[in-house]
Amino acid sequence: MGTTQLESVQEPKYWHLKTVLSEALDSDFAVGEILPNERDLAARFGVARATLRQALEQLELEGRLQRRRGVGTTVAPPRVGVAVSTDQREWAEGVGSEAWQPLDSTMAKAPAPVAAMLGTDPAEPVHVVRRIRDTQGQAVAAELLYVPASSVPDLSAIEAPSGPVRARSVLRELHRLGLQGQDRSVELGSARADDAKELDRLPGAPVLVVTTRYFTADGTAAVSVATYRADTCRLTFGDSGGLEISHDEQPERQAS
């Protein structure tokens, strides 16, 4: 039998280069070490810079490299385990789980897709709670939680109109609703400028976007759009149905 068309396709040059670079990262570079510039790397491996960029981008997606603002491309550290809870109990005290830090809460229009999930008029302002998650001193996720005013009717207008105090108040009132369910989706995306800044990434860097919709008996109570660093996070789903993020345990790489 002849070979199929798929079997006859040659491996892309950048993919082979990615394998070579991965081996070099293990033998020639230490964790956190800055890689030479693209021109020097392309010359070292005898490839075009366009081919080199494709290989570097793939290694970044796989969590082997990190592009950092004002630093350059560095060898990524071993991945850190991060558990992500979507249990409403994390809002019980209005501060979220230990790792989540509420930064702000303002009234603003929700993006059209979010407004559609909430079942609100796109022109209707909603509470937008912004939170950041740190793990071992590294920002790994940024969240925007959209909450219609109807979901938190007892929120006092006398309290701070914005800031972390207001964010805690919204979370506390949301917890009192007694949520009855949720659904979520996960997709690969590109970091927007705001998310990139908070996560110490470059705009356009790969991220994982987790969208969660929370339900009560009356309908959708809130929608969370959380952006996770794709270079450090691997998403898994536990038996309980809760979303978790775990990380491959990689041996520490040392310079030769």
Automatic annotation (TrEMBL):
Looking up CDD domains in the UniProt record yields: WHTH_GntR
Top-level division of the source organism's lineage: Bacteria
Q: Which SUPFAM superfamilies match?
A: Chorismate lyase-like, Winged helix' DNA-binding domain
Concerning Pfam families, the annotation shows: GntR (PF00392), UTRA (PF07702)
Q: Which InterPro entries match?
A: Bact_HTH_transcr_reg, Chorismate_lyase_/UTRA_dom_sf, Tscrpt_reg_HTH_GntR, UTRA, WH-like_DNA-bd_sf, WH_DNA-bd_sf
Gene3D superfamilies reported for this sequence: Chorismate lyase-like (3.40.1410.10), Winged helix-like DNA-binding domain superfamily/Winged helix DNA-binding domain (1.10.10.10)
Which residue numbers delimit the HTH gntR-type domain?
11-78
Q: In its UniProt entry, what is this protein called?
A: GntR family transcriptional regulator
